[in-house]
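Why do we care about 3D structure at all? Because function follows from shape, and shape follows, mostly, from sequence. That is the central idea of this module. The next example makes it concrete: a single protein chain, its amino acid sequence, and then its structure expressed as tokens.
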Amino acid sequence: MKPDARICFTLFPDSGRTSPIRGDKYGCPLLINGSHYDCRFVLPEVVDYKLGFNYEVDVKFFRPDLAVPELHKDLPIELWEGRPIGRGKILKIYTDFQKD
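And the structure:
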């Protein structure tokens, strides 16, 4: 799966999430400019993302045509699971979709 962007993030220790993100698949909406965009982490192996630590990961959006035009380097983002569970920013954009 070819990624659309690279993000860095920290999972909030007090978000209500009680366990790390573990496994070889993970997806959640990213809150970007007030809108939610569903994405999947592009994971080459099994991960163990612990609460309170910083991570970098590539993401693939289900609708890159809607999400990618909103992105720019250093844009703040939030990871959501019914509520914010982490915060980060856009590091790099791989896919080029232009705004109409």
